[in-house]
Amino acid sequence: MKILMVDDEPMALSSLQRLLKRCGYRDVETCDQSPAALARIQSGTFDVVFLDLLMPEMDGLQVLEATKPYSPHTEFIMLTAVDDVDTAVKALRLGAYDYLVKPVDHERLILVLEHAFERRALLSGLTGASSGTSATLSEAFDPIITHCPRMKELLLFAQTMAKSGNPVLITGESGTGKELLARAIHEVGPVPGGPYVPVNVASVSESLFESHFFGHVKGAFTGATMDYPGYFEQADGGTLFLDEIGELSPLLQAKFLRVLEDGKVTRLGDPHPITVDVRIVAATNADLDKACQQGTFRLDLLYRLKSIHLHLPPLREREGDIPFLADHFLKKAALRHGKTIKGFSPEALDLLQRQSYPGNIRELAQKVETALLMTNVPYVSPEALGGKTVPGPVFGRKLCSLKEDAELQTAYVLTQTGGDRKQAAAVLGITVRQVQRKIAEMKKDSRWISLLGDI
């Protein structure tokens, strides 16, 4: 994301530029003359422009009025030392996103900037407005399987915001795919060729935290037989993915925050700090806002991590994704175990869609693989999924349409159950012996031989 700051006071420009860079915004340009700013905005591709109101030659409103029509998707944030309601209203009418009064509170400024980025992404990145075409997802997102419109919009938004290089916080229930999304963000970010270091924060004990994250030198403590670069050094020039960030203790949160603020780590046993350039992507299934209210998580750390917030919906809220994902997992499991399975019986598919999944996608994948291992017929049955065979809505409608032809009913049920006599008997409401008799009779008729095959 590109930011331009326009102000005729060099000290103000320098101060704001340092603030933004400390917060992870790297692509920040400055300009101290309004005519030059006018030309740069009209010819450039800035996402956000901080525009001082009171400047010689042309004031901020004149610059805004002259450039907004040429840069409709650029968000303008006006800065002024004068708190004037009429001027603020005029700026908003001319297309400014917000109006801030100097001296601007730093937290307020960054919050407004984050919201401006989100609006910029929604107006142009998600609709392809900047290019005039529909936005498409990078191949990096291919591992995230979905047909759900809500998920597709989220992924497009993630792709747009990932390019900024800013910290990302991914929230969502366990098993919703947070780690897959984190890796995709790295691969479409500014440094896809850089290292990607995933760390489960909950697995690192408090006593080993500094050694693991900051590293140590040989002899720093008993057992330190060689120099060890910590996770921050390992991820230098790339992405550090911190899973279960909510499990970080208050003491470690303070140490972690210091590294994020300074961009430096100090190995245990070495007095010399090392500068690192790391993009942080964190994930949690905890409610960090609530944790901050309860005093168990630092608000200033959450503020650092939450520059971009992505919330993954649970599987139950992903419209149409259960059958799509189940089929995907079935094919993968069949290939892995060397089995030939055609799919799910209608009742099994109906059962899958009616079940709850507290473990979300991970639970669905495990359930499908278990069912495949228990299946020795072409179609997965409800029994293999832990349910019972009942004439579900899809099966029932088909059977009703064939009720005038008992042989067609029998043939349909047998093919859908993979020749399972017991299952077919339960669906047809007859005994297994009666099913066997029907099969024997039908095989005497050439019309059914090819259909029934080895059944």
- Counting H and I runs of at least 4 residues, what is the number of helices? 20
Structural class determined from secondary elements: alpha/beta
Pick out the low-confidence regions. 126-134, 389-404
Q: Using only CA atoms, what is the Rg?
A: 30 Å
Tally of discrete structural domains = 4
> What is the architecture of the largest domain at the second tier of CATH?
3-Layer(aba) Sandwich
Distance between the termini: 62 Å
State the strand order across the main sheet: 2-1-3-4-5
Number of strands: 16
Main beta sheet: 5 strands, parallel
CATH superfamily grouping of the largest domain: P-loop containing nucleotide triphosphate hydrolases
Helix content: 40-55%
Percent of residues in beta strands?
5-15%
CATH class of the largest domain: Alpha Beta
Q: If you average the pLDDT, what whole number results?
A: 83
Shape: elongated
- CATH topology of the largest domain, by name, is Rossmann fold
What can you tell me about this protein's structure?
The protein has 455 residues and is α/β, with parallel strands linked by helices. It has 20 helices and 16 strands. It has helices at residues 10-22, 34-43, 60-67, 85-93, 106-125, 149-162, 178-188, 209-214, 231-234, 250-262, 288-294, 299-305, 321-337, 346-354, 360-373, 393-401, 406-416, 421-428, 432-442, 446-452, and strands at 3-6, 28-31, 48-52, 75-80, 98-101, 168-171, 196-200, 215-216, 228-229, 239-243, 264-265, 274-275, 279-284, 308-311, 343-344, 379-380. It has a 5-stranded parallel sheet, with helices on both faces. Helix 1 links the parallel strand 1 (3-6) and strand 2 (28-31). It starts with a strand and ends with a helix.
